[in-house]
Write a structure and sequence with these properties.
543 residues, alpha/beta, Alkaline Phosphatase, subunit A, Alpha-Beta Plaits, Cytidine Deaminase, domain 2, eight-stranded mixed β-sheet, six-stranded mixed β-sheet, 19 strands, 31% helix, disordered N terminus, disordered C terminus
Length: 543
């Protein structure tokens, strides 16, 4: 990712990874499977007058796939991408674990009808207190509706949400914080096995009556331990610092953390992250800014969310100005929580990724198939081996890529398209280093028409090539490129015959200057038909 040369081992000393908790950037393709529809956290808050994004736009926020409504800038200072979650969940724990390299194939348990009686009995015995509520509830509403009864009886307010959580609310004067935390630690041991919720959360509150009950900043999360090593463990094992700011330590149950500090909101989290630039360490500073989610997303507060985003954007220039030459900043999110949709739960959305620093070449990484690419990239930057469910981000734009795109543009000029007038050119780089070009060739009977991508592949295969690195594609009506032209479904399947999921596809979207979007085959065709399936079908007599 270095401007002008390959990144040297040891050139990056520190990575600062900041999670804007719940700051999604648009409905994911599988959102409806998670009960979401028409959700877009960023678009929702961007419509509010308080919203500001100048610093984030300078890094490439508006140039990310699907964010053009924000007004792309001509030359972003950072690298940028849109990330799709692969894990079966949309909660904080699942999102952060995937950021750290673990894709969760099974959803954590949820309790839309409340927890079973055996759980309640175990909690009563462990705490010595009775239980109130035991059903999904808004955190602010539940203390308003049951806070006074809790104060009269001393019973614990137990509630949940659409996420995999068990939340225990108690007034700080009735259940002192040390006792509440101890109860939650005991609850964490109860919520295991089939009932292993992602988090048990202590939710202390204060006030004298229902009208003025407020949750205090003394929330504490008790999470599951990740099922296997994360990037945090890999970095710690390599002797690197892993400094956790905010609720990061709780999310990972302390695993892989070498130093940590809790925060009482975004303002403190940002201040501590800025102060971390003055610390001498090699490794990762991992920050979660929780207010976006806790104070504004769940509470359906569009204005508050927009103001909080503007505050982060205003803070960002000071951080960028203090970075060392060997620092890299990464900004992302863990899920969505649209403050203007039809419910108060998290939303299944794409999340942004912005990467900035002297070792980083600005450019577009396109849409990535998993949050876990962050973990792979962090470890690659810090020269720490780590086998995870993601891959390091490739070079976004380099001279070789530009040459490949230029070859595709030249091939487009040779297209035979007398019927549609839509010309397409492709340039395919083989592992031998040779480039094969192709153009679309139409036919009056239509069905013999062949796409540029297949022309290039078939030329290469006919010359004996079987391994390929990347392809550039460009197209436009009457040879005028007016936007990216990604391969059609048939061409994607042809690519899958010879290439793995990391095969790069550069879709040219302009020539003055030459610019392109980067995709991977996994990103464009995540569920492709494979050779193994064909062989399996043949072995069972199905053709």
């Amino acid at each position: 990712m270095n401007s002008g040369k390959k990144l040297k081992k040891g050139e990056v000393k520190r990575v600062f990874l900041v999670v804007l908790d719940s700051c999604g950037i648009g409905e994911a393709p599988d959102a409806q499977a998670f009960g979401d529809h028409d959700c877009d956290t960023m678009r929702r808050i961007a419509a509010h007058p308080a919203y500001r994004n100048e610093a984030m736009k300078s890094l490439g926020l508006a140039n990310i796939d699907g964010q053009a409504y924000l007004g792309p800038v001509r030359a972003p200072r950072g690298a940028y991408a849109r990330l799709r979650e692969r894990s079966m969940g949309k909660d904080t724990t699942t999102g952060h674990w995937e950021i750290a390299g673990i894709v969760s194939d099974r959803p954590m348990p949820t309790y839309p009808d409340g927890f079973p009686e055996e759980i309640l009995d175990a909690l009563r015995e462990a705490s010595g207190r009775d239980i109130l509520v035991n059903r999904p509830y808004s955190g602010t509403d539940v203390i308003r509706d049951y806070g006074e009864e809790h104060m009269r009886t001393g019973s614990l307010i137990l509630y949940t949400s659409a996420d995999s959580v068990a939340q225990i609310a108690a007034h700080e004067d009735i259940v002192p914080l040390p006792e509440l935390y101890d109860i939650c630690r005991k609850a964490r041991k109860i919520f295991t096995g089939a009932h292993a919720v992602g988090r048990v959360i202590a939710r202390p509150f204060a006030g004298t009556c229902a009208e003025d009950f407020t949750r205090t900043a003394n929330r504490h999360d008790f999470s599951l331990t990740p099922p296997r090593a994360t990037m945090l463990d890999a970095l710690k094992g390599a002797g690197k610092t892993v400094y956790a700011i905010g609720k990061i330590r709780d999310i990972f149950a302390g695993a892989g953390i070498t130093d940590y500090v809790y925060t009482h909101g975004n303002e403190e989290g940002m201040a501590l992250t800025l102060e971390a630039l003055d610390r001498d360490f090699e490794g990762l500073c991992f920050t979660n800014l929780v207010d976006f989610d806790m104070l504004y997303g769940h509470r359906q507060d569009i204005a508050g969310y927009a103001e909080a985003f503007a505050a982060f954007d205003a803070w960002l220039p000071a951080f960028l100005g203090k970075m060392r030459d060997t620092d890299v900043l990464m900004i992302t999110a863990d899920h969505g929580c649209d403050p203007g949709d039809s419910h108060t739960d998290h939303t299944r959305e794409y999340v942004p990724l912005l990467v900035y620093g002297k070792p980083v070449r600005p450019g577009n990484y396109g849409t990535r198939p998993t949050f876990a690419d962050i973990a792979a990239t962090v470890c690659a930057l810090l020269s720490v081996p780590f086998d995870c469910d993601g891959v390091p981000l490739p070079e976004p734009h380099d001279t070789a890529d530009l040459d490949l795109c230029a070859a595709a543009a030249d091939a487009m000029a040779r297209a035979y398209a007398p019927y549609s007038g839509f010309r397409v050119g492709a340039a395919l780089l083989s592992s031998s280093g040779k480039v094969y070009t192709g153009c679309n060739i139409e036919n009056a009977s239509y069905s013999p028409t062949v796409c540029a991508e297949r022309t290039a592949f078939f030329k290469a295969v006919s010359e004996g090539e079987r391994a390929f690195v990347k392809m550039a594609v460009c197209g436009g009506k009457d040879g005028v490129i007016t936007g990216a032209c990604p391969p059609c479904g048939v061409c994607r399947q042809v690519m899958a015959e010879f290439c793995d999921g990391g095969f790069g596809i550069l879709a040219v979207r302009g020539t003055a200057p030459l610019v392109y979007d980067r995709y991977t085959l996994d990103g464009l065709l995540p569920a492709r038909f494979t050779q193994e399936q064909v062989k399996g079908d043949l072995s069972h007599g199905h053709v």
